[in-house]
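1st attempt posting a full record on here, be nice pls
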Amino acid sequence: MFKRLLLVTALVPLASVCLLAQPPDSLVASGYLLPTGATVAPGQVLRLYVQEVGASLTGPVFADSVPLPTTLADISISVQGLPVPIFAVVPFSSCTGTVFVTDLFLLQHSHPCRSFVAITVQIPFEIPVSGAPANAAVSVDVIISEGGVAKVAVAMNTLNDQIHVITACDNGQGLARSTAALANAPCGGLAFHSDGTPAVNSQGFVRPAEPGEQLVMYALGLGPTTPPAQTGQPSPSSAMVPVQIGFDFSPNAPPKYPLYQTQHPNLVFAGLTPGSVGLYQINFTVPQPPPGTPSCPSNGGVSNLTVSIGILSFDGAALCVAVK
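the predicted structure (as tokens):
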């Protein structure tokens, strides 16, 4: 049921802000494809699913320049007093007996008719995160305004990173618009050849990666970089993050946290994609498959290699590797 996705624990009224009366689920949820809980990382790009704002919108509004604006479609957001850059504001409705649509994913829910706004934002790099232990959450105040008037006030938790490897289903509603639309690709994480095509089985079509070939994964939520990046600004070419990487030559394996290794020889680069806002990339060379690795897609699935990346959180991409 849709109610299970409503963000109840994070909806904490802020006593210091005088707001109009609002229902307890004004901020419905946050996330990427499927709305999830409100936990964010510095620099993370994600959507906030919000009621009580954007009632007059008749269609999506996208930012058309960088630095990204902090007000779009008359909507603005602050996190712990910091202005939040906005990629896009997209209105939509959901009603009983209809399909709740988020990009390429369709999920059936039963709940009263409501209007929502999906606001794609970049969480400021400057938000407070925990010291020690590094995986402890810190609460921050989030205020969503329209026309300069605060309409929604909630609390969110912050963590150092929340890794999300880009999938085909992330295209749309302003999220990662720089990646190509891949209508036939599955919704798992993707790794790409140098020409931008995915190295994964998709409806019977696959262009396997070759051992020794350099591929790239794109991701969100990898957290602070060295040197520090600026929120809402195009990323410099040298903003790097200290990720771990792991390779699992098993058919259709899920991502898992990679074993610690100071510098994996197959990791070429991990950091922000130059010129982007909040988009990270992980360049790596494909290892030689061990003896007995099944070919792909003849194994009946979509992959014979899963590449996982991790800092505190983790995610990964499944791909096909040519087996000689």
